[in-house]
Amino acid sequence: MSRMIFVNLPVTDLERSKAFYEAIGFRNEPKFSNDAAAMMVLSDTISVMLLTHPFYATFTRKPIADANNSSQVMLCISCESPAEVDRMVDDAGAASAKTDQSLQDGTKGGPMYGRDFEDPDGHQWEVMWMDPEFAEKGAHPVDEATAA
Asked: What is the pTM of this model?
């Protein structure tokens, strides 16, 4: 079985957040959704769990960070092409996200293309495409004999 990742995000309005993630291409999985949580599926191995603040608080003793005022994590989604990056970010903007908030402009050419958005609760998502040849070599190519 492949490993899966479930990104748990605290949200203030579950229905608004579900609608937002559906608008950018995620699918709600009703088998793992209720009035306190919603499983939003991105792929066979990646899901985002949207948790109301009271439910999220049952998993931690720490205060819930306000993602609109502080940064704890940046999430990154890969895409198949620069056009798919633009589609996802534009869809996010149309669904009420703040777009292109990063301090760096990742659209200037080169082996990577990226943009970003903040969801309605302020969680920051990087959306990126990487040239397959660049990905194969890596940002810091390693001599295979040295790596072994």
From this structure: 0.86
